[in-house]
Write a structure and sequence with these properties.
14 strands, rod-shaped, single chain, alpha+beta, 7-stranded antiparallel sheet, about 475 residues, 15 helices
């Protein structure tokens, strides 16, 4: 519904307060006052035909991302504008609405045709128009280049770390496989010697039983302290010397690692002819124990490789939809795995996950970028030594993630600036100042959440709060 336009009313809007009477009169002649009922006004991607300035009421701006409408602004502030505000660029930029707008309460707008808006801006503010041109295209190009560089730097750093992490278990598996082949060959040789000896069927059966028992004990072997292991090796070394087994001190660590003790060796001695076949039987059993230990090492190494590959897939969200329901614990764990080498051995990682926290709808790969930035900053703040705490909790209808460190803290004088683009406290060449800015945009703009910091010496925590329900679900309720 249209209504007459009043120059005096337009003058009360901050956008027009400095215009003279003639300019205000032209605006009123070219534009109109429109009352719009609750509902959609225009949609993202449609031809941008009108420039809207809110006089009274309430509007919501949304932007499509991953098939979902993300709220980027919800306001009742007089004078806010939307719509064809890029019309002054004419054919140098696509003249379509950059977002969608809907009205949540009956609202009044000053509405101006896009072509008229472009002409007025060009005529009234020619110098400002050139400045806006440079600002618009310069910022767009700079943001694209810097964001791309940030992603490539992070990818390169993580790829190097992942390669190193994968190389260690892979190399261990190769070494263990080679050693296993050698031990199996020696086992076959010892078995032949035992079979050609004086063992009767009953003794051989008992020895095979002891072999099976040794395999079971390997699986149940206790974790010993270095001092406990040393004491047990001394006991077994003395036993081997007492029974004239050459090189017994070399055998002792293997038997201790497998959880075998003097009492068990006495059972072996009671099974065979001590003077003729005990040493052969002990060495045969030693090879049995070694093969089990080596197979465990191979299993652990290949499991580690599989875990790393799974973490990389979870971290990158490869083959998964951009927007999905995710478990924050899985995302945080995959990020910690990917950053393990960067975190280093002198940082104690403490994880506290709230089991009551449900999965939430989110852009998983982008949240992983947030965790990466926050954890990386925390480790650097602690100079590679301290305690990193990663905590999740449930606060009503919000999921909360805290990344805490025991570093010196963020000085109060700069605390209000750390989310600004290009602001950094790192030396030249070591930081772009975009990590926290990108994180803020992902959390606040894309997920309609919150990102805050609280800091004092020895306790700095960045808190991310994310809605548990999607924006569309919240509106329907």
């Amino acid at each position: 519904m249209s209504a007459p336009c009043s120059p005096e009313e337009l003058r009360t809007l901050f956008l027009f307060e400095k215009l003279d009477d003639e300019q205000l009169a032209r605006l009123c002649a070219e534009g109109s006052i429109e009352t719009i009922e609750p509902g959609p006004v225009y949609s993202e991607g449609d031809p941008a035909r009108c420039f809207y300035v809110l006089i009274e009421g309430s509007l919501v701006l949304t932007k499509l991302s991953g098939g979902e409408d993300i709220v980027i602004n919800r306001t009742s502030q007089r004078g806010v504008y939307a719509g064809a505000w890029q019309a002054y660029l004419r054919d140098r930029a696509p003249q379509v609405y950059q977002s969608s707008m809907r009205v949540s309460a009956t609202s009044r707008f000053f509405v101006l045709d896009a072509d008229c808006f472009a002409s007025i801006v060009s005529e009234w503010f020619p110098m400002a128009l050139h400045l806006l041109d440079g600002l618009f295209f310069g910022n767009r190009n700079t943001t694209q280049l810097i964001d791309q560089r940030e992603r490539l730097l992070a990818l390169g750093s993580l790829s190097a770390g992942l390669t190193h992490e994968l190389n260690n278990p892979a190399a261990a598996a190769v070494r263990a496989t080679s050693a296993l082949r050698d031990r199996v060959a020696h086992m076959r040789h010892k078995l032949k010697m035992i079979a050609n000896g004086s063992l009767d069927r009953a003794s051989l059966t008992s020895l095979v039983g002891l072999q099976e028992e040794a395999v079971e004990l390997v699986a149940k072997a206790p974790k010993l302290t270095p001092l406990e292991a040393s004491d047990r090796e001394d006991e077994l070394g003395d036993w081997f010397d007492d029974h004239d087994i050459a090189g017994g001190w070399d055998l002792a660590p293997t038997f201790v690692q497998a959880g075998l003790d003097v009492a068990w060796l006495n059972k072996v001695a009671a099974t065979v002819d001590e003077s003729r076949t005990l040493e052969g039987a002990v060495r045969w059993l030693s090879y049995t124990v070694e093969t089990e230990l080596l197979m465990n090492e191979i299993a652990d190494s290949t499991t580690r490789v599989s875990t790393l590959v799974g973490a990389a897939k979870q971290y990158s969200q490869m083959d998964r939809a951009p927007y999905q329901t995710v478990d924050l614990r899985d995302l945080l764990e995959s990020t910690l795995v990917m950053l393990a080498r960067k975190i280093g051995p002198d940082v104690t990682v403490v994880t506290e996950y709230d089991p009551s926290l449900p999965p939430i709808p989110a852009y998983a790969a982008e949240l992983n970028q947030v965790w990466t930035n926050l954890i990386d900053n925390a480790v650097q703040a602690m100079d590679g030594a301290g305690t990193l705490t990663v905590r999740t909790s449930l606060d009503h209808d919000t999921a909360q993630v805290d990344i805490c460190d025991t570093g010196p803290g963020v000085p109060e004088s700069i605390r209000g600036r750390i989310f600004e683009p290009f602001f950094t406290t790192k030396p030249v060449g070591e930081g772009t100042g975009l990590g926290l800015d990108i994180s803020w945009r992902i959390v606040v703009t894309k997920h309609h959440g919150e990102l805050n910091v609280r800091s004092e010496p020895g306790d700095t925590r960045f808190t991310v709060r994310l809605p548990i329900a999607s924006e569309s679900a919240q509106e329907e309720s």
